[in-house]
Amino acid sequence: MFAAGFGPQYLILDSYRGSYLADALANPDGGFPALTGGLPPANPGNTLRQALKLNDLRNWAPAAPVLLCAGDADPTVFYLNTRLMQNYWAVNAPPGPVAVLDIDSAAIANDPYASFRRDSRRRRTP
Fold first, then answer.
1. I need a surface site. Which of 4, 56, 58, 115 has the fewest CB within 10 A?
2. Rounded to 5 degrees, what angle do the CA atoms 56, 61, 62 make?
3. pTM greater than 0.90
4. Cα–Cα distance between 96 and 60 in angstroms, integer?
5. Cβ-Cβ contacts under 8 Å for 111 (sequence gap 6 or more)
6. Would you call 23 helix, strand, or coil by DSSP?
7. CA–CA separation, 125 vs 26, rounded Å?
8. Rounded CA gap, 30 and 35, in Å?
């Protein structure tokens, strides 16, 4: 599946994909595919990975309370991103409190976000 869309007839050449992957192996990210330190790659050599590092939010800390709402079944924004930030902030505590809400999970007893969970399920139900 991941080979689809790469090759001489496409916008992104397979050689470029290979250079990206080689750089990812040489300069791994601390949050993906394995969670190590949770930090972005120290010195990416690939220009796309350099741009991704510049736009990475792992150097940002909220100054006010934050509620990260995400769904583990979201096909567009992977829940892994939310977990990565949650783990990063657990080690690098931000000044404001951070809470994470998985709107796809079931509500628990005395859950202050139970209405959000029910509302999200109602919106997706045909």
1. 4
2. 120
3. no
4. 12
5. 117
6. helix
7. 45
8. 6
Token pair recorded at residue 98? 């951070």
CA distances from 98 to 64, 66, 115 (A): 9, 5, 19
Bridge partners of 101? Answer: 69
Write out pLDDT tens, residues 69-123: 888 888 777 888 888 888 888 877 777 788 888 888 777 778 887 777 755 445 5
Q: What is the spatial distance between Cα 25 and Cα 44, in angstroms, rounded to a whole number?
A: 10
Tell me the pLDDT tens digit for each residue of 12-51: 788 888 999 999 999 999 888 888 888 899 999 999 999 9
CA pair distance 37, 73, nearest whole angstrom: 26
Q: How far apart are CA 26 and CA 57, in angstroms?
A: 22
Contact 100, 80 (CB under 8 A): no
